[in-house]
C-alpha cells in the first residue's frame, strides 16, 4: 500500500545542501537588487482560481494537471506563473496613488512536465513587474534589472534578446492571410524555417513589400544596424513605429550601459499569449533553454478589473543556478557551520558557554554530544565542509582540532571564553 | 572558445552530411566514422561530432547538448521539439503518406473512427485531427507497418514512402499524401545566439553548397 513512499512525484525534487544554500544566497542577492531599484515585494497565494489564468487565455493553465475543486465546485489551480497573479493584484488591489506599481516576487510555480522534463513540474520564478505605465523607459528599466539580476547571480556571459510583437502582428494584419495560416507562419518563423514560410506564401496574393519582409523575417536578428536595414525595407507607418520604438529602447539601454548584453531578433514570435509589444528572453551557455523571459503586456490587467499597461520579467531561478554550476563549477561549502562544539556528557554546560561566545564572534557553531568516535566526527565534519572541531572535556579541558591544517592544540575554558561565564 | 557540437543520425544521412560539411569548410576525419566511437573530437577547430539514433537527434539539440543536428523532417514532425529548422538539405527525400488497400481510394473519408497504424502517432494525429478534422484511433507500431492493414489490425497506415515498392508488393497504395520529407539542419535556440558567428558561417557555407549543387 505504501509503495510510493520513498519517491518524489514526477517533476518534484528535493533541494539539499549546497544547492539549497546557493539558491537562498541567490535569492537574497536578487532581493537586494530589486529593493535597490525601488521595487516592493509581494506574495500571492500558490492556489488561485482557474479563472484567473483562463482569463489570460493561457494554454499552459488549461493543460495543467495541478487542479483541485473547492467546496463550491469551483476549479482551483496551482499557479503556473507569477506574472498573471501580479497583474491580478495590481488590477484589483492597488489604488491610483500606488501606480505605477513596481513589484517583485519569489514563488514556486507548477506546470506539467513540459516535453519530458525540460523544466521541473515545480520550479521557482523570481521577477519584477512595472504595472500602470506604458513608458518605454520602464521597458528599459525592467530589461536593465534583468541584466543586473543575471550578473548579480554570477553569470557574465549571457544575452538578453529583444523582440517586437507589434512588428509581426502588423505584418500579419497587412498580409491578411486568415487565422490558420497566420498561426502556421508564426510557428515557422519562430523556428527560422524559411522554406516553410515560402511554401505557404507561394501563390498567395500578398503585398510584395510585406512578402519580402515575411520571407526574410527569420534572418532579422542582430544589433542596431539590422534594425536600420529593415527600416529601409518598409514604408508602412505601423511597422515603422514598431521598429522605431525598438531603436529608441536600444538607445535607453545604451544609456543604462547594458548594450553589450542586448541583441534583437524580430523573428522571435514565440506563442505570444498575453504579450503586446516589446518582448525578450535571456540565454546563457550551459542551458539549452532560455533562463528568463518577459515583455510588455498592456491588455492583461484589463482582463481583471482596471485596464493598465504593464511590463516585466521573470527569471527561472533553478535554470539559472544550473547554468551557473555548468559554467563555473561547484561552489564548495558555505552551507554548514564553521565549527562543531562537541562535548563529553558532564561538560554540557561548558560547551553551551563556549558556543555562545563563539556565536557572539559571528561564527556558525553546531553543537553535538560525543556520540561518535573522533575519526567518525572528523569525516562527518569534512563531508559538510566544517573546518574545526572543538572538543569540550570534563574539568574545563578543551581540544581544538583544525581540520584544514590537520593539527590540534589543547587549551582550557578560561582562555577560550576569556573568563566569561 | 567553446566546442561546437554537431549531432548526426547514424547511417547514410551522417555520411552525406559530413560530405556537405567538408565542402562548406568543416573538416572531419571521416575514417573515424567507420569506427564504433560515438564521439569524434577535432580539438584544433573545436568541433565535436556525435552519432545518435536518428529519432533522438532533436532531443539532443533541444536540450542544447548538441548545438546543431541533422535529422529527417519525419522525425522533426513526430517529435515537435522547440528548435530552429534552418536548412533543407534535400537528401533523404521521400513522402509522408496515408496508405491502404486500393479499394479505399477516394473512399477514405467514408470510414468513421478509422484505425490508423503508424510509427508516427503524432504526425498521424495532427494530419487527421487538425487537417482533416476527424477523430481516429491510433495504433502505434515500431516497424513493418504495412502488415497492419493486411492482417486486419487497421484500415490504413501513415508512413514514409520512398520508392513505393514495399507498398506495391503488398497490394497497398498511397491514398493521400501528407507532405514531402527530407533531411533538415536544426539548431538549438540558445546556441544560435550564443555561438552565432560560427553557426551562421556553417549555415551560409552549407546553403551556398546546396545552391551550387
Structure description:
Chain A is α+β, with helices and mostly antiparallel strands and 421 residues long. Helix content of chain A is 40%, strand content 22%. Chain A contains 15 helices and 17 strands. In chain A, the strands form 3 sheets. In chain A, strands 1-5-6-12-11-10-7-9-8 form a 9-stranded mixed β-sheet. A 5-stranded mixed β-sheet of chain A has the order 14-13-15-16-17, with helices on both faces. A 3-stranded antiparallel β-sheet of chain A has the order 2-4-3. In chain A, a hairpin with a 7-residue loop joins strand 10 and strand 11. Chain A starts with 16 loop residues before the first helix and ends with a helix. The relative contact order of chain A is 0.12. The mean pLDDT of chain B is 91. Chain B has 2 domains: 4-92 and 182-212, Periplasmic binding protein-like II (D-Maltodextrin-Binding Protein, domain 2); 94-179, D-Maltodextrin-Binding Protein, domain 2 (3-Layer(aba) Sandwich). The two termini of chain B are 32 Å apart. With 213 residues, chain B is of the alpha/beta class. Helix content of chain B is 34%, strand content 30%. In chain B, the strands form 2 sheets. Chain B has a 6-stranded mixed β-sheet with strand order 2-3-1-4-11-5. Chain B has a 5-stranded mixed β-sheet with strand order 8-7-9-6-10. The A-B interface holds A 115-116, 118, 157, 159, 161, 191-196, 218, 221, 263, 265, 283-290 and B 2, 59, 62-65, 81-86, 88, 187-194.
